[in-house]
Inverse folding.
């Protein structure tokens, strides 16, 4: 209770210091530009475009593959994460972790692999992507 009384006293003293009213800044009106503040722009919508495909030697068969093909190649994914229309599948082995990113294309509703990231299972350091793919295929 003493804390509430102290808070009330502090609030009242602030009012008396400003002549009994609390100072506030007026809200900007719609469409009116205020000097020194940049005008806001309305967001624009653009048509989705095809994802850029990562072409690296050793990733043939992975890049361009769909979820079913990747599962046949590497087994069940450890993670299967959807973000909007994009998908990430994660495959793991003793040697490395493989993250495969799948995006839809204009020619197909089903997402296909366009990019991969790899790292060591032990410490998370980057490893060669083709070597990781080969190690996981042979597990």
């Amino acid at each position: 209770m003493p804390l509430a009384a102290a808070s009330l006293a502090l609030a009242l003293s602030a009012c008396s210091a400003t002549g009994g009213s609390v100072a506030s800044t007026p809200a900007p009106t719609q469409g009116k530009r205020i000097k020194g503040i940049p005008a806001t722009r309305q967001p624009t919508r653009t048509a989705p475009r095809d994802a850029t495909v990562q072409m690296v030697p050793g990733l043939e068969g992975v890049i361009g593959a769909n979820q079913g093909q990747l599962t046949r190649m590497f087994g069940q994914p450890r993670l299967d994460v959807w973000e909007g229309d994009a998908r990430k599948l994660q495959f793991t082995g003793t040697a490395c972790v493989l993250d495969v990113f799948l995006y839809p294309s204009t020619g197909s509703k089903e997402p296909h692999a366009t990019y991969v990231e790899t790292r060591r299972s032990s410490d998370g350091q980057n490893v060669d992507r083709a070597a990781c793919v080969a190690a996981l295929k042979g597990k």
